[in-house]
Amino acid sequence: GLRAYQFMRNRFNYYDIVHDNQSLSYGVWAIGRMVPTVATIHHPITVDRDIAVRNVKSKAAKLKHMRWYSFLGMQKRVSGSMPRIITVSERAKMDISRDFKIPHDRFSVIPNGINTELFYPIPEIKREPNRIIVTNSADTPLKGLYHLLRAVASIASHRDVSLTVIGKPKENGGIERLVRKLGIGRLITFTGRVSNEEFVRHYARATVAVVPSVYEGFGLPAGEAMACRVPVISTSGGALPEVVGDAGIIVPPENPDALAQAIVKIFDNPGLARELGQKGYERVHRHFTWEKAARKTAEVYREVIRGHRRFQQA
User: Looking at residue 187, what is its pLDDT?
Assistant: First the structure.
């Protein structure tokens, strides 16, 4: 933020508006005094902090997380100075408003778009039976992969199942340790980094996509799977129900048993899988396009520019 301010301080008149993507730094606050400024907050980082603290046991580990998230005080102060905040879902708006103490009427909800030029069905690729795809390999508790791994272990005790994880877990981290503990390494493929073309082909081969997150401010993985006409199982964490709607199966977060039951339901009902896949595809194309997001963002820009003192004085 300070580097941005230093770069701009002799160039303020070059810019009609500045759009901050959740840095919410003091440099952005200073820029906002000179140039119309709007911020996007995807979700309140207070959620990440609280989940991280809750998932460690020792006081030292809890204090470490609290110290790392100490920038939240700055984010709260800076966001409170913004004339308009863009966020990506109604749930994110409510949670940011509560945790950052910002009135509801200062928000504009603009859902993310899904890039349907990158994510699309490939009908000529046959779906493989009993194959799950998940697109987050992170060790962070927020993303819920631990719960999906336990669900896979439960399913594997009585039927065939495989899991493709896009990405690579932290070496010797919690995910790798849990895979070893559950004895399911043979069932799981970590892809590492993949190209866009490989990514969409993985979707085409999957029976079902699972989004096991404890919380999402929007839920791009759900939308991307839906754009590929893959049936989605999602938790109700955060804004995920706003993205999935009636085009998927929604289960409680942090609940491996509920995930396992929903996965088996999709495995055993190919007609339901096709129905949900088609519903998801249509929902993305109807509600979550970047063209719609761009139009709504431009409207916010015009509002903030009109209200800024620089232009009022002119």
Answer: 97
